[in-house]
Amino acid sequence: MAEKTSKLYAIVHAKCPHCRRGDVFTGSMYGFNIQHTKEVCSRCGQRIEIEPGYFYAAMYVSYAMNVVEMLIVSFIIYLLVGPLEDNTFWTYLIVIFAGCFILSPFNYRYSRIILLHILSPNIKYKPYYDNP
Predict the structure, then answer these.
(1) Which of 1, 35, 60, 83 could form a disulfide with 27 if both were Cys (CB 3.0 to 4.6 A apart)?
(2) Is the pLDDT of residue 132 over 70?
């Protein structure tokens, strides 16, 4: 029997929550081939979008991720340029929006992965898919 695939590995590598082996997305996170969420897992046949509109809930996860990222970027800007004042307002604004734009593919991918792996009680891991 093969060794069990860890949940952390499956989350980091965007694998199916049911078998932890199949890819959830086509395409790379950053690149010219746009990432799309697959309909079903190619390894175990698990439906990725469990019901129509299922990934609307991922918007809330993405929003929370975006707020945390904005706070971190704001803190880093604060350390580099000082407190928010009239002369640093545009620096803060431009860098925060640039960070949001640059991290949007990351948020798209991992908000769906977090929703599938952590916030979906109906999808259970089946270790027998780890067999070759």
Answers:
(1) 35
(2) no
